[in-house]
Input
Amino acid sequence: MTLRSSAYCTVLPLVFIECDRLTGSARSFHYKRIRIFIGYCEHLKRTGWVLRKVDEPETVSGHMYRMAIMSFLFDDDDGVDRDRVMKMCLVHDMAESIVGDLTPHCGVSDEDKHQREVAAIESFRSLVGQKAGTEMYDLFMEYEEQKTKEAKVVKDLDKFDMILQAFEYETDQERPGTLEEFFKSTEGKFTHPKIIKLIEQLYKERGEKLKSY
Output
């Protein structure tokens, strides 16, 4: 199976069998399906970067991994459970390994996107076993509901990684200011003080860089 990039979004071929339909011998191949899904996540390019025609677009797994690494910046003084933040970072986009990286450009409503992703993570839960699967599902739903401090921090990290990646593309690929829309879309939407400080530093660095051109 191969990934396809349409004119508007990176999508996956609709050939997956929902796990709750698997019976008998089919269930013995769950390891293979887990491997396939994780492999897709590793190679699935993020739609926003594909649309902006950046060189070597970031992948979904690369995005989640850097978020997880950044969670090490938090400690007990920050008022969040760092381990839970880290796990949530590694789970929050896992559904995209099944449904693809859907954005507003893909013609899918927010409600439909949410329903597809919930169904996908429920299928993934069936693959990895009850204990691990339930933990992954609960972390995903916690992120989606945005009611806990940890979920809000992960949302901050999600947006911060996006604009950090935008800045890196602008700088490394010599396309200054061309990804301004990503910065505009996140203005005033960060909540955690530590992330806000990182944002201020990034804006300062970007501003100095733009002046140098």
The mean pLDDT is 84.
